[in-house]
């Protein structure tokens, strides 16, 4: 019960990974110049003890190379020493310790939003990995594979209070819950391992799609029996009524009509990855630039992502130092094909007062969070002017355009300090 | 003594990360809804015990937030539980266990070359991290910072025998050695943790540059004293005479003249990352496509990277299934500025016999590797037809073009199986 953030795309063929499965008995010879290890398959199959219960001696002859190399557990595991993961929350939640890597940060040493989204995906999949339910797919359970079902995300919301820095140790918690009758919610919390301070929170909702018909599906009883024991009623983000995201049209101030899915955008499920959508949403170009709209430029200058806007190269460093993305909501509407041509639209809020739903939700969470208002050295939410933007990704059609995803982003001044009190 | 794969770019200003350093006494309050931990700074400063000797109680008042969050060790460490790293090779080498993450693989579940390059950078930096020599920079030692010196890479060579798959546990070894009088070599080996089979090997050479004058520098005695105790005479790749890479000109078959460094291409040292160079090298477009050159298309279809070539979208899947990048050599010539416009040229080898230096080097290593010729189910090197390409990245100037990097790539049929013998 995980799901990766992907929108399935239509590709003409399926691909059987690594072709040959091996069905005979196997002896292993080693071609390592610097290693003197020589292991038999029995040793290899047993090597994952504690983290994997995959192999028994009778099964070995039927293990594929892929199975030997991946060692996906077939039973629930409580600890995974390689992934530094463990089961929490009375046996149903997952916590992973991760270090922010050098290539996950941007020029200011802080992790990019893209890196956080990648870590959400990774921990979600590792949660399913630990559950013993993971089948040969991208987060699909055995029951889902039997029913040709895959996960598709319908909504994703992320709030970032503080961006972690290079070398920082994080704890990422993730868990799942029910969402309506046929859906699933997955939430995340990112905390500093050293201080326990919450850096980011996220929530997402998922539904099942038939891989062949590409139609949404009810959750079969077989699948419900697998995943519902893992559901808990706890939320990373408190939000009573999700805000409505308006649909943009050609009057939007920023646009980029030159976006194409590439092979490199496809993940192992041959889907365009969610991270790519976020890149696209922010790859907008300025159609016109009246000086009164200078505030809206702040939108452009924070996400350290690939962008085609020449304008980006000329933004003063002081903007980059002072603002960051604080919240994002994505609503997925339809699949995006690998041959589709995608257009990205963006519109800044005209009214910068705090009447916006995302902002209210953000504010509410901040107020609900104990201690956050008490720090003297901390710019509390009431000091923070934030800027909102509405986004739309759509497929350019001959007769009509089709929506892929609607989005909202919030931006605010960077906090000068972490919430330490003096 | 590590160094990240970066080419310094000229940016107008320096940026002091996270502005304020905190100099008073600090009490910590926690704003975590799901965590009941409340730690004092003493606990936090002591939390890294075993992996960090950074903080003593007398130092605490002077720790910056960044120091508290990063906890870079000031003394040599033997084990880093968070990074799963340990010191090997009689105290001077570094080994890190990593799991191939879901977002590090391409559509065929195998790690991308880009991911391997990222892991090389990460382990190199973590090696310096463990040494206690890491200063506040991107792999620079304390002595280097005192002398305004940064590392720049002059050459990088990677050979990939097998691409690891999603979920696979790897051991990455890295170590350094002398390179001439003023340079340093850094090597890497990637092995399967389960079998000990070597998947990839890499070597690189580094020199020092004065950060202010942008001129190459001799290695000061102070720096030599820091890093030379870590030097060992061991090589991941056996190569007596590095092959010469010819310089391409406008007659090259593939070209992309539309490449611009973007903010998102800059790493925390405000440099264009080496990984970006590899992307650029392979972001070439076909100027013409005579059908007799169909073999050369194989170059385009393997690296799962961002590319602007529409052509890529239409390559038959059977090519993708059957070929992969097996070797790459990069020779760095000069810095690339953030305002430069970069052109990427590429030329396939006309003569596909095994007379090429890279190929010979590859072949020699394969033969030197015990056991590799013995596997019956394994396509040995003599069965493997490989395809070579020469690359050039240059800055388009008004009067003349300036070279940034020359490259060679080798491509070969994917092995149908790992080297197990039956």
From TrEMBL, chains A, B:
Primary location class: plastid
SUPFAM superfamilies per record: Thioesterase/thiol ester dehydrase-isomerase (SSF54637)
Domain Acyl-ACP thioesterase-like C-terminal: 253-284, 309-353
GO molecular function terms noted in the UniProt entry: acyl carrier activity; fatty acyl-[ACP] hydrolase activity
EC number: 3.1.2.-
GO cellular component: chloroplast
Family under the similarity heading: Belongs to the acyl-ACP thioesterase family.
PANTHER family: ACYL-[ACYL-CARRIER-PROTEIN] HYDROLASE, OLEOYL-ACYL CARRIER PROTEIN THIOESTERASE 1, CHLOROPLASTIC
Full protein name: Acyl-[acyl-carrier-protein] hydrolase
Species the sequence originates in: Gossypium barbadense (Sea Island cotton)
């Amino acid at each position: 019960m995980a799901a990766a953030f992907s929108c399935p795309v239509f590709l003409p063929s399926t691909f059987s990974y690594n072709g040959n499965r091996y069905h005979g008995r196997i002896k292993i010879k080693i071609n390592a110049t610097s290693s003197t290890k020589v292991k038999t398959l029995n040793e290899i199959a047993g090597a994952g003890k504690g983290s994997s219960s995959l192999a028994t001696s009778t099964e070995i002859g039927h293990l594929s190379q892929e199975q030997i190399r991946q060692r996906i557990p077939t039973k629930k595991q409580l600890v995974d020493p390689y992934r530094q993961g463990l089961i929490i929350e009375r046996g149903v939640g997952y916590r992973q310790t991760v270090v922010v890597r050098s290539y996950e940060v941007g020029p200011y040493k802080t992790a990019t939003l893209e890196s956080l989204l990648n870590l959400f995906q990774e921990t979600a999949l590792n949660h399913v990995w630990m559950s013993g339910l993971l089948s040969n797919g991208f987060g699909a359970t055995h029951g889902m594979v039997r029913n040709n079902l895959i996960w598709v995300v319908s909504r994703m919301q992320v709030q970032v209070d503080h961006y972690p820095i290079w070398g920082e140790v994080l704890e990422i918690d993730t868990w799942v819950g029910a969402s309506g009758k046929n859906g699933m919610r997955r939430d995340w919390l990112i905390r500093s391992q050293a201080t326990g301070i919450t850096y980011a929170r996220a929530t997402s909702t998922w539904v099942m799609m038939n891989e062949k018909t590409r139609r949404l599906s009810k959750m079969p009883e077989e699948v419900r029996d697998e995943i519902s024991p893992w559901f808990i009623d706890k939320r990373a983000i408190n939000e009573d009524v999700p805000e409505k995201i308006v649909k943009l049209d050609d009057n939007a101030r920023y646009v980029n009509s030159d976006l194409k899915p590439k092979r490199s955008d496809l993940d192992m499920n041959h889907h365009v990855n969610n991270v790519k959508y976020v890149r696209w949403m922010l790859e907008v170009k300025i159609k016109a630039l009246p000086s009164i709209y200078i505030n809206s430029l702040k939108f452009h200058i924070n996400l350290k992502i690939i962008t085609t806007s020449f304008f980006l190269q000329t933004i003063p460093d002081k903007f980059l130092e002072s603002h960051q993305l604080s919240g994002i909501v994505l609503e997925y509407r339809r699949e995006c094909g690998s041959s589709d041509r995608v257009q990205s639209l963006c519109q800044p809020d005209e009214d910068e007062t705090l009447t916006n739903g995302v902002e209210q939700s953000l504010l509410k969470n901040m107020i609900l969070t104990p201690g956050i208002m008490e720090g003297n050295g901390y710019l509390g939410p009431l000091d923070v002017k934030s800027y909102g933007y509405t986004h739309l990704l759509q497929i350019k059609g001959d007769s009509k355009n089709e929506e892929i995803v609607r989005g909202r982003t919030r931006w605010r001044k960077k906090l000068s300090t972490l919430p330490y009190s003096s």
